[in-house]
User: Fold this.
Amino acid sequence: MNWATDNAGFSAAIHLHGIDRSGLVRDISQALANEGISVQKANLSRDDDGNINMHLQVTVRDAAHLGRGLAKLNKVKNIQSATRVESMG
Assistant:
């Protein structure tokens, strides 16, 4: 996978899948903020059954930093998967 660079680090795309609940977006944001990961773009969709798909474009220092962020996201209540993807979409 290619890393797009800017002055603050590297850009990476993340896909989250889970079940919606009150405070979920806050908890996702907090998990990333605690790791020092900046969100550049976010797109969230929810189906009628309460399943969510969220695509994030984030800035990280390196692959290890991204890995720590993904590990934290996978521990957020109701998140079933958090993975790096080729691009947002």
Remarks:
- The mean pLDDT is 91.
- Residues 4-78 form a domain with the Alpha-Beta Plaits fold (CATH 3.30.70.260).
- The radius of gyration is 12 Å.
- Helices lie at 24-34, 63-74.
